[in-house]
Structures are given as C-alpha cells and as structure tokens.
C-alpha cells in the first residue's frame, strides 16, 4: 500500500525535509507520491527550492485546518485527475 499524499515538514530533528523529499523522489516505488511541504518560512527562495526538489505543494505555518484541507484537495484533484499515475496502473 502507498500513501495517497505525504505532508513533509522542512525542519525535522534528524534530517532536513528537502533531503527526505529528494530520497522519496529517487525511490522507484515512492517517487510518484505527491508531497506537500510544510514550513514557517515565507522566503521565496525556500519555496522555489522545495518545488525544485519535487514538492507538488507548499503550505506556510501557521495554517488553519481549512487551509490544509483546501491544499490537500487541490493537490489530490490535480494529481489523481490530471497526472498519469504509474502506481495505479
């Protein structure tokens, strides 16, 4: 079984979230799972860096449950309806 979406914090205690994202993108089984990055940084370079690493979304903390639900809904709508998803084939 695969998760339908990964929410990944950039600042984690043992490993940087972008490093983890890079490992996910390099793994043949998991590279197609959409990843939304979570962080308190609003720095444009940080946001662009997350997308370069392969994030499909970005959410700045603090956020409301409604903002989180809206982001998840938007990502899953795009990811499942528009992107050809090899895991589901």
What's the structural blueprint in terms of helices and strands?
Elements: E1 6-9, H1 17-26, E2 35-39, H2 44-53, E3 57-60, H3 65-81
Walkthrough of the structure:
The chain is α/β, with parallel strands linked by helices. It has a single domain, classed as Rossmann fold. Helix content is 42%, strand content 15%. It has three helices and three strands. It has helices at 17-26, 44-53, 65-81, and strands spanning 6-9, 35-39, 57-60. It has a three-stranded parallel beta sheet with strand order 1-2-3, sandwiched between helices.
A few lines on this structure:
This protein is of the alpha/beta class. It has helices at residues 17-26, 44-53, 65-81; strands spanning 6-9, 35-39, 57-60. It has a single domain, classed as 3-Layer(aba) Sandwich (Rossmann fold), CATH 3.40.50.
Features:
89 residues, 3 strands, three-stranded parallel beta sheet, 3 helices, Rossmann fold, alpha/beta
């Amino acid at each position: 079984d695969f998760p339908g979406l990964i929410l990944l914090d950039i600042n984690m205690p043992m490993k940087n979230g972008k490093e983890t994202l890079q490992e996910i993108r390099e793994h043949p089984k998991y590279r197609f799972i959409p990843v939304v990055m979570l962080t308190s940084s609003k720095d444009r370079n940080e946001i662009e860096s997350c997308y370069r690493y392969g994030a499909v979304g970005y959410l700045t903390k603090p956020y409301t449950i409604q903002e989180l639900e809206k982001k998840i809904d938007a990502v899953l709508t795009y990811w499942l309806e528009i992107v050809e998803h090899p895991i589901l084939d």
